Amino acid sequence: MEAAFGAAFFFAWSITCARRSSFHHGVDFANLLRISIAFVTIGAVALIAGQPLLFPGWPWLLLGGAIGLGVGDIASFHSLIRIGAGLALLVMQTLAAPFALLLEYLVLGHAPTGAQMVAAAVILTGVALALGSRPVGDPRHWRTGIALSILAAFGQACGAVSTPMAKAACVAAHVEMPDGWTQGFLRIVGGLPIVLGFVLWNTRREGLLAQVRRPYAGWRARGWALMNGLSGPGIGVACYQWALSTRPAAVVLSIVAMSPLLALLFQWGVEGQRPGARVWVGGGIAVAGVILLRNS
Questions:
Q1: Which residues contact 41 (CB under 8 A, 6 or more apart)?
Q2: In this structure, what are the phi and psi dihedrals at residue 113, rounded to the nearest 5 degrees?
Q3: CA nearest 6: which of 173, 232, 202, 280?
C-alpha cells in the first residue's frame, strides 16, 4: 500500500512541475520532454537492475503504456489548459477507479470487495468535495476539457489493468514478475512513440520549439522539466507499477485519487495559492477513506 501512496505523492508533484514546465516550454514540448527524460533515466535504472525486458506478459505493459502514458497523458496535458489542474485531475482520478473496476470485471472476472468499494467511495467523495467546482470560462473549452479528462481517465484505467494481465501471464508461465522499474520502463517504451508522433504532428506548422517562452529561463526551465520527467512517468510510475503488482487496480487508483489534494498543497507552497476550507474538509474525508481502505 505504501507504493500507492508514493505514486500519489510523485504524481502530485509532477503536476506542479508540469504546470511550470508547460509555462516555459509549451504544452506539447513539455509533455515530450517529460516522457523522454523518464525514458532515459528509468531505462538506465532498469538496465542496471538487469532484469529481463521480455517476459510473459510484457506486451500488456507496452499496450498499457501506449494507452495510458501515450493517449492518456496527451489528453491530460491538453485538458489542464482548458479547465484547470483541479477539475481535470478530479475527473481523471475519480473516473479512473470505476473504469478500472469495470475493466477488471470484464477482462479478469474479479472486482474489489464490498468493504474496499465503500472505502474507495469515501476517498472519491472527499476528493470531489475538495475539488468539484465548475470553472468560469468558454463553455466549449469546458466541454472539450471534460471530454479530454474522461479520455485520460480511461487511458489511466487501461494502463492500470494491463499490469494484472501481465502478472497473470507470469503466474501461468511460473515466472517471477520483474520489479516496478522494469515494468515502468516498458510502459514508457509503449507511450513514447505515441507522444512523439502526436507532438510532431501537432507542431508541424509552427515548429516544435515555437511555444518555448523567450527569453528562455535556462536552468530554471530545465529544472522543472527534469523534475517533471523524474517524478511522474519516472519514480511515480515505478511506485504505481509496484502497487498494481500487489493490489487490485481499482484500489490503487482510489488511493492515487488523493493526488489532486496533494497537488493543491504543492501549488500553495510553490505558487502561493492557498487551499480553502472546502479542500481541508474534503481532504479529511479522503484521509478517513484511506484509513478504512488500509483496514479493509
A1: 229, 230, 234
A2: -70, 170
A3: 232
253 within a domain of the structure (yes/no): no
| Mean of pLDDT over the chain | 82
2, exposed or middle or buried, with CB in 10 Å at 0-12, 13-18, 19+?
exposed
pLDDT tens profile 240-255: 777 877 777 677 777 8
Which of the residues in the chain have pLDDT under 70?
A: 1, 85-87, 108, 110-111, 131-138, 249, 273, 275, 291, 293-296
Give dist(CA 166, CA 142) in Å, integer.
Answer: 36
Contact 17, 9 (CB under 8 A): no
| CA terminus-to-terminus distance, the chain | 12
Residue 254 lies inside a defined structural domain of this protein: no
Contact of 124 with 112, CB cutoff 8 Å: no
Joined together, the cell numbers standing for residue 269 give 507552497
State the pTM of this model: 0.80
Q: Is-contact 182 43, C-beta < 8 A? A: no
Q: 173: domain range? A: 2-112+136-248
Is residue 235 included in any domain, yes or no? yes
**For the chain, how many structural domains are there in total?**
1
Q: pLDDT > 90: what percent of the chain?
A: 15
Please state, as a whole number, how many other Cβ atoms lie within 10 Å of the Cβ of residue 285: 17
Residue 40 Cα to chain centre, angstroms: 19
Distance CA 25, CA 22 (A): 5
Q: What is the CA radius of gyration of the chain?
A: 18
Q: Does 148 fall in a domain?
A: yes
C-beta neighbour count of 112 within 10 angstroms: 23
